[in-house]
Amino acid sequence: MQTSEPLAKLLILLLLTGGTPCGWSQSTIAYSAGPAFQIPAEFIPASIDLDRDGSADFSFIGGGPLCTMDVPCSGCTWSFDVLILGTNGLLVQDSYASILSAGEWIAPVTCSNGVWSSAGNSTLLSLWWSERYGTSGSTGPLATMGEGFLGARFYGADGLHYGWVHVRLDWGPVVVDWAYETRPGAPIQAGAKPVPVPLALPTVARPGYLRLNWPSEIGKAYQVQVKGRLEAFAWTNLSFVIPATTTNTMLDLPMSGAAQFMRVVEAD
Q1: Model-level pTM?
Q2: CA separation for the pair 225, 45 (Å, rounded)
Q3: Which among 189, 218, 247 is the end of a domain?
Q4: Together in a domain, 218 and 235
Q5: In 3D, which of 261, 267, 260 has the Cα closest to residue 244?
Q6: Are 187 and 181 in contact (CB under 8 A)?
Q7: What is the mean pLDDT of each run of 10 residues along the chain (268 residues)?
Q8: What's the chain's Rg over C-alpha atoms?
């Protein structure tokens, strides 16, 4: 398959990426693989910047234990919160941050058990224990599910974007990874991220063209993505998708234009 799309002149920079299992993939999603972090205590915030524009979108903060004054103590609580920064929004249930299952849609119209909040902070998890009675536990949706996704929205330079933040419960809550939909106004499924496919070693099949080969699933579509610098955050989709008609797909790309890194991902 040929295309006139201008691409890398030095296609030896091609990224040979292996596939990553995921039930929900989309080639227009920008994904950050962490690094994961335990939400700190003692009122020290830890923030994430979903689109890496230099401005934090959400902060996570743990307080400290609050206990009754009796001895032995009859009750202590310890809460961990999500702080909504700026004009951004978070899906909430009452005073708690909603925890979504993988595959649930995050969109302008919310799920039945969550509403968009753009003010202040929401509790992610509350821990409690009693020295006197020897009991302990935790409350909130994260305590019930153990792991899930926050529904988030934020304003970029081009408009409103939807995203997710993966959280899980260890001793306390941990922020694992996060992603957002690069198309303004487009919904995203909780846990969805690009799925790179393994590429064979590229070859020059004919003068001026580089041939890509990858194992494919008949009926599934694939997307070539590029970026000029390996350390750059977002990938750019080429203006076409490749539908697979065999179990191995080949694509010839012209070696013209500036050098770029490339990969192939599953498309919608």
Answers
A1: 0.84
A2: 35
A3: 189
A4: yes
A5: 267
A6: yes
A7: 38 41 68 94 92 94 90 92 95 92 90 81 92 91 95 94 96 94 94 91 85 92 90 87 93 84 87
A8: 23
3-state secondary structure of 235: coil
Q: In total, how many domains does the chain have?
A: 2
Domain stop point among 141, 169, 189: 189
**Helix residue ranges per DSSP H, the chain:** 141-145
Same domain for 210 and 109?
no
Say how far apart CA 71 and CA 86 lie, in whole Å.
43
Which tokens hold the place of 117? 């909040």
Q: 41 and 15, same structural domain?
A: no
Q: Give the three-state DSSP class for 12.
A: helix
Q: Read off the CATH number of the domain in which 218 is found.
A: 2.60.40
**Residue in the block written with tokens 């409103």:** 160
Range of the domain at 64: 29-189
